[in-house]
Write a structure and sequence with these properties.
about 850 residues, alpha+beta, 7-stranded mixed sheet, 5-stranded mixed sheet, about 40% helix, binds zinc ion
Length: about 850
């Protein structure tokens, strides 16, 4: 049903969109939904949760203020499965209501005047389609999976479990009263005001006393233990399964320091009554429910920290950043969502930069850069646009660029202004622009236009010539970005039908020339010459005087201040010098890629081997090992062999990949040594992949051993499963099938074997459609939907459909068949 709402918004947008540019639509707040009241407070009472029927009882008392005279009907969002049993106003008078799809209309006893306060209570029998608003999890006999319920509101799903105004533009305060089985905990937003056990039940009351958005209302019901921590006087609590309690402190205890750092950077002390982080099963990652973040379960064990788990590196600091960006100041509508997600993705890099140094920040943003390039290749979209595909990585990169441009004092003063001006409120992109203008006095209209309201990034094509008589270096700088295909109405070559062209027909543009200041650094025997250059034309010439001797390197955009791609043909000697001397990780990675393409050039191989062994940051050593692969064995082997003793697990894993490409008995011996002896899960997983390639006679033994090897997030087992799929080794069909349950991936490997012709694999997979474990039934169906050729999947599902005994599974299979029949596909 949420899809229908979004489709409606898009079709409404289509008409005026033809006349307005993206920037105009954003500036005019085109995407914010209208309503005629101000939601003030809701008291949400829920109880009688039933896991079999995914039902519960609810009662919601709503306080709102009329925003038009004569308000005689109040429209709230309310899921069609919520069955109202009584609707009354404050005096107990029953109120007339009407239902239309996922809305309810409440008619007050008398029309309200402008500014009047209205209070009414809706009592209902609640039921959800599992996963819409609430997800009920059953144990299913699986390990590490207590029975539980979690909510997920963003973006329009909270109205599936309680009636509300389900759009971010109107904030409220709330109280949530949950009655749950006595052995369970119920975690929600704000302050815990009471916790009473009566007989078999326990009732917890949470009060969110500062306004926030309705999509951030949260409830988790599960048997959890609380591990208490604190930042100053603010409780910081970690709610985890009892069996995870020994792992929780090491993972989460970084939180108070992160809270402190974010408070200092933004100048806004952590604004909420407490901060809870609660782990649940089958979650997609994390959700920044105000003061009560929900997170995926699966906590790293001690050994996993060698592999820098994503959980601590990105997930915890990302969700925490939302407490300021998203929850304290919230996007007014989904078209400005980058204000939430861009900042949340930007802030962890700031934290790691302060804690671990500049390289850690560059490392963090290098990953954002890779993600952004992969997205933009498919479809360039502006950061600020409805449905933008790049709000996380491009948001992080553009904010980092703005921080570089303004310098930290002016940048953080701007952010402080933005947060202060919209505290407990909502904001548009233009509000951020205005805050920067007010805090710095500098009009950056050009920055917002090119980096936020338009699509793409500068694609530089640079050529250098040195004039030894004039002692000058001349750079020809072209910007070659495609300005035509960013227009969302124009299909791009190779663009999949599913993403082209924009149904809203908003015209996106890419600047023909981005304007930015940058620095060129020229190395010479007598020292470096640097020059600040203003870039701003499709093609321009830059002359750098006082270059007294022939350059030893030329760094275009020293320090990587501009989000860009760069094509610059340089002599190998320049690149090698840059790789050795340049402190910036993006610059080094760029030089490594150039060198890596010169596989016939022994100087290039030597430079890469040197970096692989001696660079001062592990990511550079990893990048160099990756690019060494195509070089002769004499260049690769010593570097890769030495790298197996590196202190960084990521480097050792990259060395194994390089050895696997190289081949040979010596490489196999080294890989076997890593498999037998390395302490890192990721390195041992890489050793499995390498050994399968290097020693085909021993491959099955290694796979068998790896399938049984426990590791964090099954890294080693997954390497074995991947090897089975890649080798299409049907000897393992039975072994893979036996892993299904504890392993979700095994389902998809079975599907991969089936897709390549194993009828036995398909038979086993089909049997899981109707097995006792609800979660596994769902995974099996997903495998049919997404991992098999459509004709094969349809044939098998049709054959299975009638015999399925579990009602939910039968309905799901029938729905899937209908969907697959309706959409022409692979
Ligand atoms: Zn986020």
């Amino acid at each position: 049903m949420r899809k229908i709402q979004v489709a409606l918004l898009l079709s409404l947008a289509a008409v005026p969109a033809l006349a307005q540019s993206n920037a105009e639509l954003m500036a005019n707040d085109h995407y914010t939904r209208s309503h005629d009241y101000d939601l003030v407070h809701q008291r949400i009472v829920v109880s009688d949760f039933d896991w079999d029927s995914t039902s519960f009882r609810g009662s919601v008392t709503t306080t709102l203020i009329a925003l038009r005279p004569g308000l005689d009907s109040i429209v709230l969002d309310e899921g069609a499965l919520l069955e109202n049993t009584a609707v009354e106003d404050r005096s107990g008078t029953a109120l007339r209501t009407a239902r239309h799809g996922d809305t309810v209309v409440v008619f007050p006893a008398a029309p309200a005047r402008f500014g009047d306060t209205l209070v009414f209570t809706i009592a209902y029998r609640g039921r959800v389609k599992n996963g819409n608003g609430l997800t009920y999890i059953t144990t299913d006999g699986l390990p590490h999976r207590p029975r539980q319920i979690w909510s997920q509101g963003e973006d329009h799903d909270n109205h599936y479990w309680f009636p509300t105004f389900d759009f971010p533009s109107d904030k409220m305060t709330w109280e949530l009263v949950a009655t749950v089985p006595r052995e369970d905990m119920a975690v929600s937003n704000g302050r815990l005001v009471s916790d009473v056990t009566r007989g078999a039940t326990r009732t917890l009351t949470w009060r969110q006393e500062q306004p926030s958005a309705t999509y951030l209302v949260s409830l988790v019901v599960a048997p959890l233990v609380k591990i208490h921590d604190a930042w100053k006087a603010v409780p910081v609590d970690y709610y985890v399964y009892r069996e995870d309690s020994a792992k929780a402190w090491r993972l989460f205890h970084v939180t108070p320091d992160m809270i402190n750092t974010y408070s200092v950077l933004t100048g806004v002390p952590y604004p909420w009554a407490k901060y809870a982080q609660t782990t649940v099963a089958d979650f997609f990652g994390g959700m920044e429910n105000v003061s009560a973040t929900t997170l995926i379960d699966g906590l790293p064990d001690d050994r996993a920290y060698q592999d820098r788990p994503w959980y601590g590196w990105l997930l915890i600091p990302h969700e925490l950043a939302h407490m300021w960006f998203g929850d304290y100041v919230t996007t007014v509508n989904w078209a400005n969502l980058w204000l939430n997600e861009g900042f949340a993705e930007f802030m962890p890099g700031q934290y790691w930069g302060r804690k671990l140094g500049a390289h850690a920040a560059q490392d963090y943003y290098a990953d954002e850069y890779r993600q952004y390039m992969n997205i933009d290749r498919r479809r360039p979209m502006p950061l600020a646009s409805l449905g933008s595909n790049n709000i996380y990585p491009k948001g992080a990169l553009v904010l980092e660029m703005l921080r570089d441009y303004l310098g930290p004092e002016r940048f953080w003063a701007s952010i402080h202004r933005y947060l202060g001006d919209h505290a407990f409120g909502v904001a548009t992109t233009d509000d951020l622009r205005q805050a920067v203008l007010e805090a710095t006095g500098e009009n950056l209209d050009w920055f917002w236009s090119e980096w936020v309201y338009q699509a793409g990034y500068p694609q530089f094509d640079v050529a250098a010539t040195y004039d030894s008589t004039q002692h000058a270096l001349t750079l020809t700088v072209k910007q070659t970005q495609d300005t035509l295909h960013a227009d969302s109405t124009t299909p791009r070559p190779g663009m999949p039908a599913s993403v082209s062209p924009d149904s809203a027909r908003v015209r996106f543009t890419t600047p023909a020339a981005f304007r930015m200041p940058l620095v060129v650094r020229v190395g010479t025997a007598a020292g470096d010459v640097t020059q600040r250059v203003q870039i701003g034309a499709r093609e321009q010439t830059v002359t750098i005087p006082n270059v007294q001797s022939a350059p030893t390197m030329v760094v275009f955009d020293d320090g990587n201040r501009v989000l860009k791609s760069l094509h610059f043909e340089e002599p190998t000697a320049w690149l090698a010098t840059q790789l050795r001397r340049d402190d910036d990780l993006w610059d080094r990675a760029w030089a490594i890629r150039q060198l890596g393409a010169r596989t016939g050039d022994s100087a290039a191989g030597a430079a890469l081997a040197d970096a692989a062994m001696h660079a001062d940051y592990f990511l550079t050593r990893v990048d160099a090992l990756r690019m060494l692969g195509g070089f002769p064995a004499a260049a690769v082997f010593p570097a890769a062999a030495a790298a197996l003793a590196d202190t960084s697990a990521a480097v050792r894993a990259a060395a194994l990949a390089a050895l696997a490409r190289l081949g040979g008995a010596q490489a196999a011996t080294l890989a076997r040594g890593a498999w037998n002896n390395d302490s890192s899960y990721d390195v041992r997983a890489a050793a499995v992949s390498a050994l399968v390639e290097l020693d085909s006679a021993g491959a099955r033994d290694v796979i068998t051993a790896a399938l049984a090897e426990p590791s964090y997030q099954d890294a080693i087992q997954n390497a074995a499963l991947q090897a089975i799929a890649l080798r299409n080794d049907t000897a393992f069909v039975g072994a893979v099938d036996r892993l299904i349950g504890p392993s979700r991936n095994a389902v998809f490997v079975l599907a991969a074997l089936g897709a390549r012709g194993s009828a036995h694999a398909l038979d086993l997979l089909a049997a899981h459609l109707d097995e006792p474990r609800r979660a596994v039934r769902g995974w099996a169906l997903q495998a049919f939907q997404f991992s098999l050729p459509r004709p094969v999947a349809l044939e098998r599902l049709r054959a299975a459909a009638n015999g399925i005994t579990h009602a939910d599974a039968k309905t799901a299979v029938q729905d899937a068949i209908r969907e697959m029949e309706a959409v022409p596909g692979r």
